[in-house]
Amino acid sequence: MLTSTPDLWSGGAAYERYMGRWSRRIAPQFVTWINAEPGAAWIDIGCGTGELTKAVLDHSAPSRVVGIDASAAFLQVAAAQVADSHAEFKHGDAQSLPEDDDAFAVAVSGLVLNFIPDKKAALKEMVRVVEPGGIVGLYVWDYAGHMQVMRHFFDVATALDPRASEFDDGVKAPICRPGPLAALFLEAGLRDVVVEAIDISTAFEDFNDYWSPFLGGTGSAPKYCMSLTEKEREQLSDALRRRLPTGPDGEILLAARAWAAKGGVAR
Asked: Domain for residue 241, yes or no?
């Protein structure tokens, strides 16, 4: 995960519990939507724990996939769970990729764009490393709308403590909406730009299954949660428990939406 706050995504295992398990559900749908030819060379920018890289390998028959990330912890997890000779993981920055011009047919990024300080530079780099006629694509959570895992958390947290809005990507990440995404892609010179929603359900066994990932300190919401006192966290937990839709056996079923964008590199 490539971000302006290096310690925000330091724990690969904590991220897996918090968002990795949902990214795993989104990634295959996104790869199918990209619709690249078999045998293409891919680069996965901000590869994190390797969920998107694995989806590319499983669903697109690539010639190779290079995963780039700034987090050594994430790269270690990715290399361990993606044991495939077609995959390679490298340390790098989304704003200055360690790859040659026109080296790939497809450049993708999953759930990363809003954490990159210079988003225009990142898109420019994605375009640079893709050959003419290739594809650039990415997806981000709909933080302000249908990403209910986080929307419930921040709506409750902000009602209790206005300071929580400083951590809320629904407020901080206006890029995670269809209009701004399309504009960014068009400004980068991409053609035939399309932005579509990818929706999944997020099922939790009980409240603890929902709540415990927020105690990992990895990600914006957990970072805020762990900045609270024990009493404040207990108040937040109680308020969330009252708000969340809970089934007769304690299960919690929420919706999650990602906005996916793609465009073609000019020939």
From this structure: yes
Nearest Cα neighbor of 75 from 39, 112, 46, 114 is 46
Q: How far apart are alpha carbons 21 and 82 in whole angstroms?
A: 15
- Average pLDDT in the 243-256 region? 96
**Predicted confidence (pLDDT) at residue 110 exceeds the cutoff of 70:** yes
Q: Is the dihedral of CA 98, 113, 16, 159 positive or negative?
A: positive
State the pTM of this model.
Answer: 0.88
In a domain, 159, yes or no: yes
Residue 165 tokens, joined: 């809005």
Total number of domains in the chain? 1
Q: What b/e readout covers 102-127, taking b as 16+ CB neighbours within 10 angstroms?
A: ebbbbbbbbbbbbbbeebeebbebbb
Domain presence at residue 224: yes
Residue 1 domain-assigned? no
- Return the closest-CA partner of residue 197 out of 25, 19, 30, 20: 30
pLDDT tier for residue 22 given thresholds of 50, 70 and 90: confident
Q: What is the CATH number of the domain that holds 18?
A: 3.40.50.150
pLDDT at 125: 98
Alpha-carbon gap, residue 237 to 216, rounded angstroms: 14
Give all strands of the β-sheet with 252-264 in edge-to-edge order: 87-91, 64-69, 41-45, 104-110, 130-141, 252-264, 191-204
Give 77-107 pLDDT, tens digit per residue: 899 999 899 999 999 999 999 999 999 999 9
Residue 266 DSSP code: P
Domain span including residue 62: 6-264
